[in-house]
Amino acid sequence: MTIEAPNIEQPRLWRLYMLITSRHLYAMLFHSADAAGLQLYTLDIDDDDNADSITRRLEETIYANEWLVNDFGRVSVIYDGSDYTVLPPAIAADTEPAEGWIRCQAGAVETLDFKIPPSLSNFVMRTWPSATIEHRVAPLSRYFYSKSRIGQAGKMYVNVSDRRTLDIIVYGRGGLRMLNTFTYTDTVDAVYFIMAARELLQLDQMTDELIIAGDRTLRDQLTETLRDLLAGVMPAIFPATLYGSNECASEAPFSLIVMPLCE
Fold it and tell me: Which fold has domain 11-138?
């Protein structure tokens, strides 16, 4: 898939953030001096889960859109994989990621190892040698942690995607209490996972709030159902102080738009 190249003057002043899923490449251009000028592009890549096919199709997409390999000031890549694990500091300090896995920061002290096809990570590092690669939930976890430090301990944060995945993140006074992802088929399943997690963590249904981010349509469906069960259900606040009223930013996956806020 080829799109018209954007007009990028002085690419070193721009940051490129990319989210790679099995179906799409989301590319977000962010100007270091003018956040309101953010630009978002969605490119189709592959529609199956074969790792080699995803890498091959991503390569074709990148080479068909050569503006993506400009000399940007910073390049950050987010991978939307299904396999990850959170490591306590003591374990992370004495171990290295397994072959085919990458380690990144997930919170204040927690780290996260995630699985990524070596062909894909190798292509990314060949194309953008100074790029960082992290899992989709890592920037979400860091962003919500920054919120929990200002008096939001005990809140549950949920990110829902159009791929029917549900990320659940909970911080308490002692740090990270839960970081997990569930796959669901309909709203009832998603509600079950959320309510089961709240019961497991003994969150109060009347006082401990639930903040929902992600795909607008799915978020609204969840919110409507959950408000019959919980007292405090609300959408995540869009970081308007950074992006202003930029419509592109409001349509971007949440893990992508919070990246500049939690690097």
Answer: Nucleotidyltransferase; domain 5 (3.30.420)
